[in-house]
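A quick word before the example. In earlier lectures we treated sequence and structure as two separate objects. From today on, think of them as two lines of the same record. Here is RNase H type-1 domain-containing protein written that way.
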Amino acid sequence: MDSVNVFTDGGARGNPGPAAIGAVIIAEPGIKTYRISRKIGSTTNNDAEYQAVLAALVFLKDSKNILGIYEKTVINFYSDSTLIVNQINGLFKIKQPLFKEYFLKIRYLEQEIKANIYYRTIPREKNTEADKLVNQALDE
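And the structure line, produced from the sequence above:
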C-alpha cells in the first residue's frame, strides 16, 4: 500500500454533551473503504475530535498487515479541526492534561504503525462523510 487517506471528525451536542466519532479510511483509492462510527459518551467537541484520530490510528495499527501498510506508506489524516491538527503537528501548545495524554497515545501508535503519517486541516465541506458518521451515531 503506497498511500492511505483518513478523514476524521468528532462532535458533541451541547459541548459538553452526547458525543460521537466518525472516521473514513480509504486504502487503494476507490477500492477499499473502512468506516468507524460510534458514540463515546458525554464529552466536548475537541475531546471527540482527538478520540476520532485515536480510533483511526488503532484501526490502522490493528489492520496494518491486512492493508499492506509498511514503512514507505504515506498516511494522510484530514480533519476540519484546526486546533487538533495544529496541536498534533506541534504548532499549538497543548494545555489540557487529557489532550496531552491523547497526544502521547498518538505518538505511540504512530511508532507502532511505522509509516509516514501527516495531519492536515481541510474545510468542513470536504469532511462531509466523516461528519455524517458522527451524526448517524448520535442519532441512533
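Notice the following. The chain has a mean pLDDT of 96. We will return to this example when we discuss secondary structure assignment.
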